Each structure stands twice: as C-alpha cells, then as structure tokens.
Amino acid sequence: MTDTAASAPLYNRVALIGMGLIGGSFSLAARRAGLVGHVAGHARTEATRARALELGLCDSVHASAAEAAADADLVLLCVPMRAMAPVAEEIAPALKPGATVSDVGSAKGAVFEAVAPHIPEGVHLIPGHPLAGTEHSGPDAGFAELFENRWVILTPNAETDPEALARLRAAWEGCGANVDEMDPAHHDLVLAVTSHVPHAIAYTMVGVADDMRRVTQSEVIKYSAAGFRDFTRIAASDPTMWRDVFLTNKDATLEILGRFTEELFALQRAIRIGDGDHLHAYFTRTRAIRRGIIEAGQDTAAPDFGRTPPKPGTPKA
Ligand SMILES: NC(=O)c1ccc[n+]([C@@H]2O[C@H](COP(=O)([O-])OP(=O)(O)OC[C@H]3O[C@@H](n4cnc5c(N)ncnc54)[C@H](O)[C@@H]3O)[C@@H](O)[C@H]2O)c1
Ligand SMILES: O=C(O)C(=O)C[C@]1(C(=O)O)C=C[C@@H](O)C=C1
User: Fold this and answer.
1) C-beta separation of 127 from 111 below 8 A
2) Ligand 1 pocket, mutate which of 16, 17, 21 (most atoms under 8 A from CB)
3) What is the pLDDT of residue 299?
4) Angle between helices 276-295 and 250-273 (to 10 degrees)
5) What is the rounded average pLDDT of the residues 281-289?
6) Going from the N-terminus, what domains does the chain have, and what CATH number goes with each?
7) Which residues line ligand 2 (CB under 6 A)?
8) What is the Cα–Cα distance from 213 to 111, expressed in whole angstroms?
9) pLDDT for 304 beyond 70
10) GO MF annotations for this entry (predicted)?
11) Contacts of 288 (CB under 8 A, 6+ apart)
C-alpha cells in the first residue's frame, strides 16, 4: 500500500457491479487497505445483496446497477463476460464525468468492443483482468488475500488518461497485486494458453472420466489419483463464467486448441511407435516450465490458500 492510500482513499466512492468471488475479494482487499471510501454494491437478487452487506463487501446495496454507479469515482464491472455490455448500457446515463469504468473480465478484446460504445465522453474506460481466482463463486467465495502477489493486467490504449490509469494501477497494487499493461489481443492469446485452454482440457478430461464412470461403476471416482483430482477442481469452475470466456475469447482459444491437438497427436504417435526418447525429452521440457513457475513464486496452488468452499446454504450470486 502506498502512503497516499494510507492517508486518503484513492476513490471516494466505488460501485461494484457484481459481488461474487472477484468483486467481493476486490472490495475486501481495498477496504482493508483503506483505498476506497463508500462502496455501493449491485447484485441481482435480494439474497445476494443481503449477504454482501452481512459480509462487509459494501456499505450500501442497490437493486439497480445504475443507482449503484451514480456518483461513483470507480465503477468496477465484476459480472460474467456477456453481461458486461448490457450492464454498461444500463449504467451509462448515471456515470459521473471524470469517473473510471473498469472490469475484471477474463478476456479483454471483447470487453472493450462491447462496453466502449456505451461509455460517455469524459468517462475513462480502462479494462483490467486479475490473474487470480478459484473454482468457487458467489459473495461467500471472496477473500481479501486473493490478489496478493498475483498479476493484474490492464489494457489501456493511446487515448487513456495517464492520471486515471495511475490511480487504477495504485488501487490494484494496494490490493497486493503486481500490475502490467498489455495490448488486448496479446492478453487474449496469452490467457488462452495459460488459462482458457487448460480449463477446456480439464472440462473435457472430467467429461471423459464421467463417461467411463458409467462403464466402470464409479471406479474412476473411487480410485481417482491426485492429477485427476486437480482436473476436477478446475472443472468445478462456474459454468456461466466459462461459457462466456470461451465465447468471448473464441479466436485465441481455437488457435491454441488447434496447436494442442497437433501436440497431442505427436504424443499419441510416440506412444504408439514406442518412441521413448521423444516422450522423455518432451516431459523434461515441461518439467522445466513447472520449476520456472515455482522459482518465480507464482505457485499458489499450495494447501487451501483461503480457497475454502462457501458454507452450505449460502446464496449463489
Ligand atoms: N472466477 C475466477 O477465477 C475469475 C478470475 C479472474 C477474473 N474473473 C472474471 O470475473 C468476472 C466475475 O467472475 P466471478 O468469479 O466473480 O463470478 P461470480 O459468479 O462469483 O460473481 C458474478 C456476479 O455477477 C452477477 N451477475 C451475473 N450475471 C449478471 C447479469 N446478467 N447482470 C448483472 N449481474 C450479474 C452475479 O449475481 C454475481 O454477483 C467474470 O467476468 C470472470 O471472467 C473470474
Ligand atoms: O485458480 C483458479 O481456479 C483459476 O482458474 C483462476 C484463473 C486461472 O486460470 O488461473 C481463472 C480465470 C481467470 O480469468 C483468472 C484466473
């Protein structure tokens, strides 16, 4: 946290549109660090609004996104990707000149294209993406430490106001994150490799196992090894969020899935023809990547990491 953040909030009033895992975590982290003044939250259901207040995710709740956004200095869109444009259209007339609108969506090109047309002149649109999350969702899933030592990628452009950008950067840094800037198309390609296609593979592998389960009478589940269990964690991620990620990062996902399929065929061939040298060299290369991630301090898959499941009976956002 910076000295400025400790003495005065970076944003006097913040509107959180969507108070699930990411919106809730941002609020908890930003409030704990004294980065924000009043937090106005919007969620669609009364149950989520009540729970968000109870958990201290916000100071006021609003059934209307526009009402939450009115007079806000920062409006953070924390909804699934394909809800971003309708929400932006709804809040547009309420936005205050000089306000910053940002988001946390997992793909960046599509957000800008969908949201920018709705943002009035004089309001700063700076898309962003925290590279941090879990398989849980809803208000109970949020925790203040989520962004610590994780990357947040902002995708400003040549017209972005430097002061608004510096302020947003400081807010994420105050939440414990490291901030980088990227071109949206590049972001989408990188994330297709590091997040989106890995999720597609996990979903597929668990689907295959589920088909097998029908054949083997639950043995796949009963004897599932640690590797498969890791896949099931990823494949338990929110269906709405991931449907939207794949549909909004379609081109990059298909490009990387194509490359993945080529590599898989090469591996399949090496197994079929008994080419142990190929397999050994390939696995040696991939092991080095894992070691590089650990050395860079980016392995947060350590025990729990605050990723305890929501308590039973609590509302899904
Ligand atoms: N979960 C992750 O690991 C992760 C990580 C980084 C970024 N993201 C991105 O963050 C965003 C939010 O994800 P999350 O994990 O916090 O999801 P979540 O399900 O925990 O929360 C989503 C919130 O959006 C609200 N919402 C859903 N549809 C809406 C609609 N049509 N209109 C208004 N509100 C709506 C929900 O009520 C909820 O409050 C997504 O765009 C996702 O791509 C997620
Ligand atoms: O840790 C997890 O459960 C995640 O899937 C988080 C994860 C990722 O792929 O790393 C998922 C989607 C995001 O947009 C950012 C982070």
Assistant:
1) yes
2) 21
3) 62
4) 140
5) 92
6) 3-182 (3.40.50.720), 186-295 (1.10.3660.10)
7) 106, 131-135, 195, 237
8) 39
9) no
10) NAD+ binding; prephenate dehydrogenase (NAD+) activity; prephenate dehydrogenase (NADP+) activity
11) none
Integer-rounded Cα radius of gyration of the chain? 21
**What confidence score (pLDDT) does residue 219 get?**
72
Distance CA(317)–CA(51), nearest Å, equals 9
> How many residues does the structure list for the chain?
317
The residue type at 36: V
Tokens of 67: 């009402």
The winner for highest mean pLDDT among 168-177, 206-215, 300-309 is 168-177
- Specify whether the backbone of 217 is left (phi greater than 0), alpha (psi in -120 to 50) or beta: left
Of 10-14, 80-84, 91-95, 286-290, the one with minimum mean pLDDT is: 286-290
For ligand 1, residues with CB inside 6 Å are: 18-23, 43-44, 48, 78-81, 83, 87, 104-106, 130, 133-134, 137-138, 141, 238, 241, 245, 317
pLDDT at 259 over 80: yes
Tokens 């599509």 correspond to 110
What contacts 219, CB < 8 A, 6 or more positions away?
Answer: 213
Q: What is the complex's ipTM, to 2 decimals?
A: 0.98
Dihedral angle of Cα 79, 16, 88, 101, to the nearest 10 degrees: -120
What is the pTM assigned to this prediction? Answer: 0.91
